[in-house]
Amino acid sequence: MNREIYMDYAATTFVKPEVIEEMKLYFNEYFGNPSSVYGISRSTKMAIIKAREKIASAINANRDEIFFTSGGSESDNWAIKGVALANKERGKHIITTGIEHPAVINTCRYMEKQGFKVTYLPVDRFGTVDIKKLEESIGKDTLIVSIMFANNEIGTIEPIEEIGNICKKRQILLHTDAVQAVGNVPIDVKDMNIDLLSMSSHKFYGPKGIGALYIKKGVKIDSFIHGGSQERGRRAGTENIAGIVGMGKALEIATLNMNRENKRLSYLRDKMIEKLLKIPGTKLNGHKTNRLPSNVNISFDSVDGEILVMALDNEGICVSAGSACSAGAIEPSRVLKAIGLSDVRAKSSIRLSLGAGTTEEDINYAADIIKDTVFKLRENNAKWSSGKF
Ligand SMILES: *Cc1c(COP(=O)(O)O)cnc(C)c1O
Predict the structure, then answer these.
(1) What is the set of domains in the chain, with CATH numbers?
(2) Separation of 101 CA from ligand 1 center, angstroms?
(3) Cα–Cα distance list, 293 to 257, 260, 279, 309 (Å)
(4) Is the distance from CB of 146 to CB of 118 less than 8 angstroms?
(5) Residue 272 burial by CB count (10 A; 0-12/13-18/19+): exposed, middle or buried?
(6) 162 with 145: CB under 8 angstroms?
(7) Ligand 1, residues 74, 177, 179, 202: which to mutate, most atoms within 8 A of Cβ?
């Protein structure tokens, strides 16, 4: 039987056993509603405070600047819609990039329908946003700039500190979708002048369905979920206690291990890239060094990415073509198009994302299988086109 090798950590991660262990208590032992006053509710209230502290300290925020949500998508929606609606008398212009996650892109498209104007900034061939164009795009009616911290498909890390300085100077709010970055690369919202930041627990070994939005003190933003007074009246609904506890624990572990894990993953990533680039007709997508330690995105000449992903699945290797969120759509990846790839090359690309369970043995094994599979698919292609089938 084949080995199962999971190389799709950018799509989601497993939940670490220590995280599950902490969460367990909050399903039956401490199940009280934190809004109630009796003992078991005080325990859940305390647990939320502790988790909020852990999450705040991981990005150098204050505890009262962290608001729990249902995940990265909700945080992105809230940040953009909430700021736009609360400040619309000041202006109606939003700036973002062409390589954002659908949670940002589609929110911006929705805001366009609501009468807002959106600028989608271009990126260079490595996926880095054009800073000069950003500065030129900022006008009197610009309310918010939303630029991701690290890209989910090609792993490129954006110059957020530089962008933060520009936004601060021009007195414009900066939101960053840091879902791929939190727990993986160092973030300091104060040093980087970030006003709003989205994160999601299931991208750093916590449970799914829980995330947070960092909102800097003083930022004017509308509530997104109206109802009770949870999350200081800004996000109603009885708290997902177990999720919150799990998210806090997971981020605490990720922060503690970050340096060591980054070194380990960068080594494995570079080894994988080196091995795959030895296959003729391959090219790396994204930046060579300024990329997430976990991300590999490669194009293979004369190979269809979707077919390669399915063939690798047969071999027990889980990777994705484009990003998981847009899989199923036959369109070439919007991100790969934005860095200047042709439709054909974009469609011949796959993403491998490494993580906590990835070993050097996995890299060697997977690289060999990928090589064999690519050769096999190309041979089949050649047979088809020469009519020898
Ligand atoms: C996964 C992801 C999201 C969505 O997060 P969910 O918690 O799944 O809603 C948003 N942005 C980026 C960059 C992501 O990778």
Answers:
(1) 5-12+258-379 (3.90.1150.10), 17-253 (3.40.640.10)
(2) 7
(3) 13, 11, 22, 22
(4) no
(5) buried
(6) no
(7) 179
Q: How far is the CA of 325 from the centre of ligand 1 (A)?
A: 9
Is position 325 annotated as part of the catalytic site?
A: yes
Task: Report yes or no on whether pTM surpasses 0.90.
Answer: yes
Q: Position 47: which residue type?
A: A
For ligand 1, atom 14: residue with the closest CA: 179
Six token digits for residue 57: 């300290």
Residue 350 identity (one-letter amino acid): I
Instruction: List pocket residues of ligand 1, CB cut-off 6 Å.
Output: 71-73, 76, 101, 103, 148, 152, 177, 179-180, 200, 202-203, 211
Q: Is 36 annotated as a binding residue?
A: no
Q: Which two tokens stand for residue 228?
A: 């009770």
Alpha carbon distances (Å) from 363 to 217, 265, 367, 369: 44, 11, 6, 10
| Alpha-carbon gap, residue 284 to 7, rounded angstroms | 17
- Decide if 294 contacts 10 (C-beta within 8 A): yes
Structure-token match 């080894």, residue found: 271
Q: How far apart are CA 348 and CA 306, in angstroms?
A: 8
pLDDT in tens, the chain (389 residues): 568 999 999 999 999 999 999 999 999 999 999 988 888 789 999 999 999 999 999 999 999 999 999 999 999 999 999 999 999 999 999 999 999 999 999 999 999 999 999 999 999 999 999 999 999 999 999 999 999 999 999 999 999 999 999 999 999 999 999 999 999 999 999 999 999 999 999 999 999 999 999 999 999 999 999 999 999 999 999 999 999 999 999 999 999 999 999 999 999 999 999 999 999 999 999 999 999 999 999 999 999 999 999 999 999 999 999 654 555 657 899 999 999 999 999 999 999 999 999 999 999 999 999 999 999 999 988 887 777 65
